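Justification of computing resources. Each target in the renewal requires a structure prediction run like the one illustrated here; the chain below, 84 residues long, is used simply to show the kind of job we budget for.
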Amino acid sequence: MYRKEEPTQIPLESFELPFEGKLSEDNRWVMMASFIPWVEFEEEYAILFSSEIGAPAKSFRMALGALIIKEKLGISDARNSRTN
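Resulting C-alpha cells:
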C-alpha cells in the first residue's frame, strides 16, 4: 500500500542542526538531492503499490535516499552475523 503524503521536506535554508549549525549548500548530499526530480519520481513510484491493501511502503524519497547512500558509501544491507 502506498499513502501519498504531502511534501514535508524542510527547505535547506530552514533546516537547523542540533548544535545550531546549518547545512552547507556545498554538502555532497544536499547537492545531489537538488538534482533529483522527487515529485515526478514519487508519482511513478506510487503507481507500483495498491492504494488499499498491504503494509504501507516507505516514501520514495526515503527509499531512494537510502539506496543512494548505501551505493555511494559501498556498504551492504546484509546483516553482519558477528553482531548477533
